[in-house]
Amino acid sequence: xxxxxxxxxxxxxxxxxxxxxxxxPVDASLAHAQWLGxxxxxxxxxxxxxxxxxxxxxxxxxxxxxxxxxxxxxVVIARPGAESRLREIDGAExxxxxxxxxxxxxxxxxxxxxxxxxxxxxxVYVGTGGRTNSEGVRQLRAILEPxxxxxxxxxxxxxxxxxxxxxxxPDGAIVGYPPLVEERELFARFMPVPEESGAHVVVxxxxxxxxxxDCSRTAELFAGLGYEPVVVDIGEFQKLEGCVTCLSxxxx
Length: 252
Known about the structure:
It is built from 5 helices and 15 strands. It is of the alpha/beta class. The N and C termini lie close together (9 Å).
C-alpha cells in the first residue's frame, strides 16, 4: 500500500505565515476538521496515512510538503526558506527514517521548500526567487541528477511556491491558472485551468485527482478528460496560501 505522510494542524495554525495575500482570520477548529476530511480522502483512495510527530509550536507545520522531496525512492530533507519553519524538519526526518529511508539533506546556506519542487517523469522543476535559493537548487541537483533527474529552474514571483502556480496531471501535462504562470515556455505541455485552485492537483492513482472544493469548473474539465475528481474543502488552509499538495507527501 502506498504511504502518505501528513502532520495534523497545531493550536497555532492561525498564526501561519502569509506573503502574497492579505491575512484573514483562520478558524483552528474548522481547519482541524478539514484536515481530517483530507486524510479520509487519502485513505479512501488507498493510501496508508502516516502522521509525522506534531509540532504544536510551529504554526505552518501542517504544510508538510515543504519539509521533504522524494525522487525514485530517495528522500531529501529540505531546508525551508522561512527561519521559523526550520524546526519542522527534524520530525519529518525522523518519520522517513522510521520507514526505512536514509535521507539526504539540504545544508546551509541552501534553502529549499518542497512546495517549490514539481516532478514530471524524470524532469524536476524547481521554483526560485521566493523561499528556495540558488544554493538549495545546486544541492538538490547534485543529489538528483545522478539518479537520472533533469533539474529545471523556474522563476517564481507572483505566488508563494512553484506548486502554488502549477502542478501536473498523470499524463505529464502541466496545469496552471494563466494569470499566475509567467514562464509557460519552460513547460513542454501547458494546460490552462479556469480557477486558481484548479492548478493544484494531487495524483492519487487510478485516474483520481485530489482537488480543492472551490474549483468546480476545473473539476468538470478534468472529468471530461476521463479523470475522477476527489474534492475536499481546505478553505481554512487556503487562507494561509496552502493548497491540496501542501498537506501531504506521497511515498510511492
